């Protein structure tokens, strides 16, 4: 019989690594709290039409990356490939956008049928933020400043750089697109196959082609800055000034376009060189037209999506996940002898009752003293609490500090203060 395996590109997070995930999740929650964001949770599955209408019919995601299936009722459903569309759908559906500012965040699994490789998976996870009801550019600046603070908080600021661009309004983009297509047609023979196809479908995406030949053709292409509308240009220059004021450095990259159709005006990416080709850790931008496009009254909006796996890879590569998060047990309780074995579980409950934050592991499954102590050590616990027949009589346990080699000593069962001190003192 064939062994059952996880689906290609979909990963298990095993207990050795889950503390790193929890660490990052905790950091994200704290960050969002500090900036006044509230969490929103939306379903993993949505109507396929939602993604087609928002992300765009001729984007890579919709053309070839979605997990789409017919349910038993023959409705076309899709596992969400990103978070924004669902959040916008929920915000419209539940009336969250009527004359209100919403600062929302989400996290969860996303699904894309891509070629699995380092930093690119078929089920991956994102944290994201979406802000509704603010035209910017002050919120654009604050959102970016918040992400810069995240890198500070995680101790990786010098390994990430910010790229920034503006895509103007749909009208200015349209005029530019026409001229870009006209220009590229004159070089069509030299374009790579992907770019030739995009000439018909999504020409702006050619700007961020990875093909060096295509990039060199683009050196002589029309410059979007010559097409941008005045309001978008002013928006962008205030954003840049606010980032300068805040001391956030960036590079304006006129070829940064992002892969989703709903973006306009501000777009940005945080990129690292430490992960090879999959270097974009966080990407976002403004999507002022999307709410209306999905059936709501027009509401300006901006957001970002951040890849959890990529950020964790980066944290692990740089060795900046604090060692302490991998310790998940404080004390390991061992019994020796029949009566002590019987007393173990009730005593453990008593200790938990008196020490609500103590992470206590009981030794279960029998064995000799030596093997029990070995397991205590391997658990990562600071203290072994040993309950033998004598200790049982005297209502104490023998405490062995597994990390300092300090002499063992006896501790009364109800002496929570000394137990806490023993865990906290060096
Ligand atoms: P890329 O250019 O790397 O394909 P993208 O433009 O498709 O990224 P978005 O759709 O904006 O990315 O998603 C935001 C973030 O989510 C990315 O910057 C990345 O960190 C992460 N991400 C996107 N696709 C994947 C994937 N298949 N596996 C893991 N992380 C991903
Ligand atoms: Mg992609």
Automatic annotation (TrEMBL):
Identify the keywords attached in UniProt to this record, alphabetized.
Aminoacyl-tRNA synthetase, ATP-binding, Cytoplasm, Ligase, Nucleotide-binding, Protein biosynthesis
Coiled coil spans: none
Recall the GO molecular function terms of this protein's record.
ATP binding; histidine-tRNA ligase activity
- PROSITE patterns per the UniProt record, alphabetical: AA_TRNA_LIGASE_II
SUPFAM superfamilies, per database record = Class II aaRS ABD-related, Class II aaRS and biotin synthetases
Its chief place of residence is cytoplasm
**Sequence similarity:** Belongs to the class-II aminoacyl-tRNA synthetase family.
Subunit arrangement? Homodimer.
Q: Which NCBIfam families match?
A: hisS
Q: PANTHER family given for it?
A: HISTIDINE--TRNA LIGASE, MITOCHONDRIAL-RELATED (PTHR43707:SF1), HISTIDYL-TRNA SYNTHETASE (PTHR43707)
The name on file for this protein is Histidine--tRNA ligase
- Point out the gene that encodes the protein: hisS
